[in-house]
Amino acid sequence: MPIHLDIGCARGKFLLEMAAIQPEKNFLGLEIRQSLVIAAEREREHLGLKNLRFIFCNANVSLINWLSILPSRTLSIVSIQFPDPWFKRRHQKRRVLQPLLLISLAKRLYPGCQLFVQSDVLPVIKPMQLLIESSGCFDLFETTYGDLLTNKPFPVATEREAYAISRDLPIYRALYFRNNNEIPQLEVLEANYQCFLNKAMMYS
Ligand SMILES: C[S@@+](CC[C@H](N)C(=O)[O-])C[C@H]1O[C@@H](n2cnc3c(N)ncnc32)[C@H](O)[C@@H]1O
User: Fold this and answer.
1) Atom of ligand 1 nearest to the CA of 8
2) Which of 59, 119, 121, 177 could disulfide-link 125, Cβ–Cβ 3.0 to 4.6 Å?
3) Could you say which of 6, 84, 147, 168 is catalytic?
4) Protein residue whose Cα sits closest to atom 14 of ligand 1
5) pTM score, whole prediction
6) CB proximity list for 154: less than 8 A, separation 6 or greater
7) How far is the CA of 203 from the centre of ligand 1 (A)?
């Protein structure tokens, strides 16, 4: 069964609920904070969920290797929801969606698979969207700045999403589908992305 991969799943409330209501699907949550993974795994065992696993890792390091050995057609959905913002310019390279990770994901997402991103911070979601779009490998299905997606991909809110909704914060969402296009070389993607960023800065 194909896997829904959630990158930066924190203590996994979203996936615990998703796995319970969609037993026919598999879920995998990645989280860089070990204490959260231990708590999430404990809850998963308590609930007896067999279609869900949590892994303690830095997605920018371990995921890339793991994706390279993953059989094709194993991943069906990737979500990156409310990633840490790292506002300071010198810290922005710590943001989770980087060109190499995007390329590794694109290699394992076959045409028609979904990539979903959401955040309550516009300066975080914008560069993510620019990176995804500069790859040419994903078609934007729908994006909303502040409103709900008409086609919300999941019936469950993440912890941060529920918090943002309760505070009436705007949420920015974008749903992409992998297309048939070839994946660019890393250097080409980095150059395209820089171009997109420069253009976006010129018009902002
Ligand atoms: C702001 S929280 C959002 C959690 C959850 N997705 C939500 O929407 O409620 C971001 C999470 O991503 C995790 N994270 C940050 N960088 C990561 C990385 N490189 N690999 C895996 N997890 C990461 C953080 O530890 C944190 O738990």
Assistant:
1) 12
2) 119
3) 84
4) 8
5) 0.95
6) 14, 18, 79, 116
7) 30
Give me the half-sphere count of Cα atoms (radius 13 Å) on the Cβ side of residue 36.
15
- 18: which residues sit within 8 A by CB, 6+ positions away? 4, 25, 27, 154, 155, 156
Does residue 40 have its Cβ closer than 6 Å to ligand 1?
no
Q: Is 84 a catalytic residue?
A: yes
Give me the residue spans of the domains in the chain.
3-203
Instruction: Give whole-number Cα distances, 37 to 10, 26, 30, in Å.
Output: 7, 17, 8
Neighbours of 87 (CB within 10 A): 10
The CATH fold of domain 3-203: Rossmann fold (3.40.50)
Q: Is the CB of 159 under 6 A from ligand 1?
A: yes
Instruction: Give the torsion sign (CA, 14, 15, 21, 27).
Output: positive
pLDDT tens by residue, the chain, 204 residues: 899 999 999 999 999 999 999 999 999 999 999 999 999 999 999 999 999 999 999 999 999 999 989 888 899 999 999 999 887 777 888 899 999 999 999 999 999 999 999 999 999 999 999 999 999 999 999 988 876 666 678 999 999 999 999 998 999 999 999 999 999 999 999 999 999 888 887 776
Residues 119/164, Cβ–Cβ less than 8 Å? no
